[in-house]
Design goal:
heterodimer; A: 417 residues; mainly alpha; two-stranded antiparallel sheet; 2 strands; globular; B: 217 residues; 4 strands; 6% strand; elongated
Chain lengths: 417, 217
Amino acid sequence: MIKRTLAWIDRRFPLTSFVQHSLVEYPTPRNLSYWWNFGSLAGIALVIQIVTGIFLAMHYKADVGMAFDSIQHIMRDVNYGWLIRFLHSSGASAFFAIIYIHMARTLYYGSYRAPRELMWWTGQGLLLLLMATAFFGYLLPWGQMSYWGAAVITNLFRATPFIGDYVVIWLRGDFQVGDATLTRFYALHFLFPFIIVGAVVVHLIALHTVKSSNPSGITLAAKDNIPFHPYFTIKDLYGLGVYLIVFSVFVFFLPDTLIMSSNNVPANPFQTPTHIVPEWYFLPFYAILRAVPDLAGGVVAMGLSVLIFAAMPFLDRSKIPGGARYRPFYRTMFYLFIVNILVLGYVGATTVTPGTALLGQFATVFYFSVFLLLPWVSIKEEKYLRARGLPAELETLIKDEETQKAEHRQKHKRRHS
Amino acid sequence: MNKRLIIPLLLFAFSGAVNAAPPAVELNMEKIPADRASVLRGAELVVNNCVSCHALKYIRYNDMLTLGVASAMIDTWRGSNPLNTRIMAQMPPEAAAIAFGGAMPPDLSLMAIARDGGVHYLYSFLTGFYVNDKGETNNHIYPSTRMPDILGISTATDVKQRAEIITKAKEMTAFLNWAADPHAEERKQLGIYVIAYLLLLTVLLYLWKVQIWRKLG
């Protein structure tokens, strides 16, 4: 019966061949480390957010008079409402953590390089969509930090030349953050995840064209690829298990560590909190915004700090495969960059004192310097490494790749002659 | 930030005065009890001492019944109100605003998680009242608060009396901590089962992974 149904479908839709081609036989490098688990984890995090979000939407009221109360209604009166809400609120942080690790892996191993530039750029688009979605969602609990966070961020658009004031009103739908803002943020917070799903499909189609990169940074010969199923289905499942344990610790035991105390106070337009801080995942960018002493300059710097990642395929001039693995200078820069991001995060979280302001400015300059120095560093590094002689392991890998390419060319020629 | 401020700020920073922020008031980090008996005593103390001015609007009388407060006591608290009435302040908000110089006593349902420091803030505030040189009552944690020293710690000198007040403050804090998240206990209990299950599942998945990958040699 099942066979016949499948046959019936397959005559009309390539179901079996799709599953076979994209999920079962899909060739995957066997040397992938556990850092390659975070792509599938991001997919799971997205599904968790969408499912819990739909259930929250069934009980939430997007109205300035009821929003805060409706969250408490979910927390107290709805069956397992507290679980759905904490899954969603902790899930947002988890999603960002996964995405940042996923990006760090791509940067470390140079996975953004040819032929995977479109993977990197669709990923960049996904990051922007995720940030927008998180920003819209953060207004919905209608706490003090929700309100003032939205007020501060929408106010940044005042920096738009000539029409800044109109843009701010247009975004808020009112002269200040109010009911119109809340309802439109709710509508967009509901819409964006589905745009993200669409963008993920594009990201995956690109992946299945160029295939996964791997720690060696070299397109592996056929013999080094193994079918996705069962090897990576089980590896991803194991990774998922580990992830869910860590996630559950936050959901069940530390859910309040991810919710700022001032967001447990209802929004009050007449009382500015003593210090307005975004969620942890925005802190480094917030620090960059504050590091520039001019509104327009700060907004541009903050925008660039997110968008500059897209330039990586152009900035990295090195042809040495394997990313940081075989490149000591690049590796040092990578680690310094990570430390610098943590410094920026710290600066973003603290109240401005002359000391932290200076530290923030220094870290901002460092942040952009890493990107801007990369073309020069990567060229110098390649020359230096080639002069010293590449590691034997790498030489064989490069040779393998060349033979493989030559074989491929020959086969191609024969077929066409 | 003002452009003209930048150069003086930089100079100031270079001069070595890095930490110019005022020192934060230190909270009393003593352990707040979580046992049911303390929470129940706290419930009685809060209703009798706080609810004249403060509401607990996310708590209904029947939530208190579920918590374990004796139903006879709840009946005296709620009077003729039905059991599912939310606990509101006895003083109308407008009257309270007039009585306290325009400041409305805040709702207490979420107070245990609504300030940095959480329960420690709350406990430190309740026990932070003192009489200053001018003979006025003030608070270390929230200077010039409009709330009176309801437990009388600022005037208590007797060691035994102070100890009693401190116990009361801890029990009130314990109750408000329950009120901020009544499902916390259930959540932690469920969490233990969920994590135990996931640990077992993950170990099995790991063994399965090892077995499958062994085929590759």
